[in-house]
């Protein structure tokens, strides 16, 4: 009896597998709730106003989507820590907010681009859906492309596994110098990484579709909504690490010049 009791004690101990799994589930739950709370303005807009053929409604809908960029950055950043450490990092709310603060300088122009794109798509979807039959399909395709680009820019700016340090540093410097330069640098780094790893954004979309389908399941679907965002972000980070995304740019790294090293050794000998 001592053998099974010891095994059971090890499983239910404070540092055992059951406790660690519970902490990981708690971390994913809190991060997902933080992400969903960021979309509270949009849910309030959908409940009270909705997308109507009026300028006020379209502008309110676009403004309500302004937290989408920071929320995506916080979600991916918080789950990147969990996947990288492979253990409970603690303080999930602080991890989420810290990821948003860390990406604010480099990603702020992209965060403002999200409501601007929503404004453009809102006018297309609301004002031209009856006159142009293909308007809803156009809005859906462009919305998916913007979502993929936003995730890609967030991953590249976050310096994920396999990131080119020079590219991230250049994007950081450009963002500090000016918003337009930061936008160009981040877009160039993201698109070049997409060209070298074209299956990665397709995997993101497949994971997103899978997460949405899981929330549609009967009985358990509403409960999975509180875990699906963190699960999707964690799966995205696993895919990025497995495929080495963002792909390093093919350039020669800067290194010391042989002559400089010889001069330094001669000075040291003197």
Structural class: mainly alpha
Helicity, as a percent range: over 70%
Could you give the order of the helices and strands? HHHHHHHHHHHHH
Beta percentage is under 5%
pLDDT < 50 runs, ≥5 residues:
160-178, 249-264
Averaged pLDDT: 76
Number-wise, the strands total 0
Question: If helices are DSSP runs of H or I spanning 4 or more residues, what is the number of helices?
Answer: 13
Topology:
Layout: H1 2-12, H2 17-37, H3 40-48, H4 55-64, H5 68-85, H6 92-127, H7 135-157, H8 165-177, H9 179-196, H10 199-215, H11 221-224, H12 228-243, H13 258-269
Describe this entry's structure for a reader:
With 270 residues, the protein is mainly α. It has one domain (13-248). It has helices at residues 2-12, 17-37, 40-48, 55-64, 68-85, 92-127, 135-157, 165-177, 179-196, 199-215, 221-224, 228-243, 258-269. The chain is globular, with a radius of gyration of 23 Å. It starts with a helix and ends with a helix.
In short:
By secondary structure, the chain is mostly helical. Helices cover 77% and strands 0% of the residues.
Can you tag this structure with a few keywords?
270 residues, mainly alpha
């Amino acid at each position: 009896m001592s053998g099974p009791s010891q095994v059971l004690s090890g499983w239910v101990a404070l540092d055992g597998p059951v406790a660690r799994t519970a902490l990981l589930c708690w971390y994913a739950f809190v991060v997902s709730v933080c992400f969903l709370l960021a979309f509270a303005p949009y849910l309030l807009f959908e409940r009270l106003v909705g997308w109507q053929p009026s300028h006020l409604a379209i502008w309110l809908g676009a403004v309500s989507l302004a937290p989408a960029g920071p929320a995506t950055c916080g979600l991916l950043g918080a789950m990147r820590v969990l996947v990288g450490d492979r253990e409970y990092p603690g303080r999930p709310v602080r991890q989420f907010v810290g990821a948003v603060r860390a990406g604010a300088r480099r990603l702020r122009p992209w965060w403002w681009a999200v409501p601007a794109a929503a404004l453009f798509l809102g006018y297309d979807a609301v004002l031209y859906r009856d006159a142009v039959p293909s308007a809803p399909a156009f809005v859906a395709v462009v919305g998916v492309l913007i979502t993929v680009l936003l995730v890609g820019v967030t991953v590249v700016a976050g310096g994920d596994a396999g990131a080119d340090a020079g590219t991230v540093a250049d994007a950081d410097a450009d963002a500090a110098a000016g918003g337009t330069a930061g936008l160009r640098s981040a877009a160039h780094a993201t698109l070049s990484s997409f060209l070298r790893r074209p299956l990665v954004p397709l995997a993101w979309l497949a994971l997103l579709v899978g997460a949405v389908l899981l929330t549609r399941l009967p009985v358990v679907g509403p409960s999975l909504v509180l875990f699906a965002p963190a699960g999707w972000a964690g799966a995205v980070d696993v895919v990025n690490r497995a495929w080495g995304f963002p792909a390093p740019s093919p350039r020669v790294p800067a290194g010391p010049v042989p002559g400089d090293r010889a001069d330094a050794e001669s000075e040291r000998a003197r």
